[in-house]
Amino acid sequence: MATIDAEPQPITVDLARTALVIIDMQRDFLEPGGFGETLGNDISLLAAAVAPCQAVLAAARAAGMLVIHTREGHRPDLSDAPKAKVERGEPSLRIGAEGPMGRILVRGEPGHDIIAALAPAPGEPVIDKPGKGAFYQTDLELMLRNRGVDTLLVCGVTTEVCVNTTVREANDRGYRCVVLDDCCASYFPEFHDYGLKMIKAQGGIFGWVSSSRAAIAAIAATQA
């Protein structure tokens, strides 16, 4: 058992029943020419989450924890991309359009890949999701149930969109979620802050908020 210092209160977890979920750390969101930049965002703001994610990922792997990565993207024919999503906003390149890293947010294209710094290791599941939440139209819940997982350590981008959506989906399914604040980031710093506040408000209405350092310390304590 490991006790993680968190808000609104510390949480004790069984690492054998805990999964590290790293959400959408993809080139399309973090690198020049990807979907994030086509929307006019400052992609450099997401870089802050990379090193903390690397540190937690290394600790989780060393402890033998289940590690799951997610990627948002669509089939090449866009049959799983709602028209409302494709047409929304005014990006310089829409989903499916040809960009510097291949077609935007399309599975199998270079931009859809997870960044090299956080590349999945052999045997680590990768969930390809068509929406914001990692449970929607995926087999994530089946994977977690098969492994007896009841707690998720959540990292990734962006805090207020895919991270928050996944945490809310997980909460409704009975999972305990611990969001690692410095392992998450947003194109809008104020959204990052409020996204975390919403999760831990009212006694942890959606989950707990902690940090990479606290999670790593808790994991290390079980290995001593």
From TrEMBL:
The Isochorismatase-like domain extends over 18-205
- Cite the entry's keywords alphabetically: Hydrolase
Name of this chain's protein: Cysteine hydrolase
Under the heading Gene3D superfamilies, the entry gives: Isochorismatase-like
| Signal peptide start-end | none
Instruction: Keyword check for Coiled coil, yes or no.
Output: no
Superkingdom to which the source organism belongs: Bacteria
| MF term (GO), any | hydrolase activity
- Report whether Hydrolase shows up as a keyword of the record: yes
Entry-linked InterPro entries: Isochorismatase-like_dom (IPR000868), Isochorismatase-like_hydrls (IPR050272), Isochorismatase-like_sf (IPR036380)
| Pfam family, any one | Isochorismatase
Q: Which SUPFAM superfamilies match?
A: Isochorismatase-like hydrolases
